[in-house]
What we know:
alpha/beta; Rossmann fold; 2 domains; six-stranded mixed β-sheet; four-stranded antiparallel β-sheet; 33% helix; D-methionine transport system ATP-binding protein; transport; cell membrane; translocase
Amino acid sequence: MITVSDLRKVYRQGSNDVVALGGVSLEVPTGKIHGIVGHSGAGKSTLVRCLTLLDQPTSGTVAVNGKELTNVSADELRDARRRIGMVFQHANLFDSRTTEQNVGYPLELTGTPKKQIAAKVAELLELVGLTKFAKAYPSQLSGGQRQRVGIARALATDPDVLLCDEPTSALDPKTTDEILDLVKKLRDRLNITVLIITHEMHVVKQACDSVSLLEGGFIVEHGDIASVITNAQGRLAHTLLPLPGDAPRSAGAGTILDLLYTGDQATEPVISAVSRTFNIDVNVLAGSVEQLGDQQYAHLRIQLPLDADVETITNYLLSNGIAVTVKGTK
């Protein structure tokens, strides 16, 4: 488990204070994958550095599996860092080392006997599907293979937590999905907690159980995927489940509603039910339906006729578990 409480990081630049993190708090349960999303400058990289104590936070606490890291001795911190595996945007492999030598490097640093290193490396290479590439050098590997080496290396010390900093942003879409599928497989097999820093919403859709939106050093939205997608007032919902870019805002006169829903409702004939129940014609302006994890999610934009009882229809939809935003009447 990762627990961050009121984490602040302030840099001094000349006579000015620059607030990189303004009081971040979050908790990621054991065995879950959590995404931190945000634009450049949001504070994502600073957060990673503070989580590993490569940067000392100005205030606040960081704990992994109940072990508080911000107030420990140098030796304790060194031991704690071994329980945190790091995966980077670019695998950062040693060009002069083979795959197996790169993976075994963290164990060399801890003085692990060579026989144990060899056995552990073989186990990890099988786990990430690179057994046949044990003797290959980074220049002989594809981008996805190099990232698999980086993941195997991060797991060498049997960490409790895997921190992934933009792990797929340098990869093509197919390879991105393969790496994310691998991360999920490793999470399930090792029961490891994963934190993914990313600016790609596809990563969140593909791999994450929950997500936080970081902006200007603050978490402005947070929750599991189902709750953020069905939050009609949130920005993450409309980013994770967008309408088509050319979606019309109206078609003639009427009241426009945006609907967000999940689970059983996503496969139900919601629009037909509204039409039958209220004896009105409902115009569907745009929609998208996606499968995220084991759930289906839908986002529809509909238009009701001018004489429709919008309040009653809205309450009917809400009572059926559908989030509704009234966009206005045109």
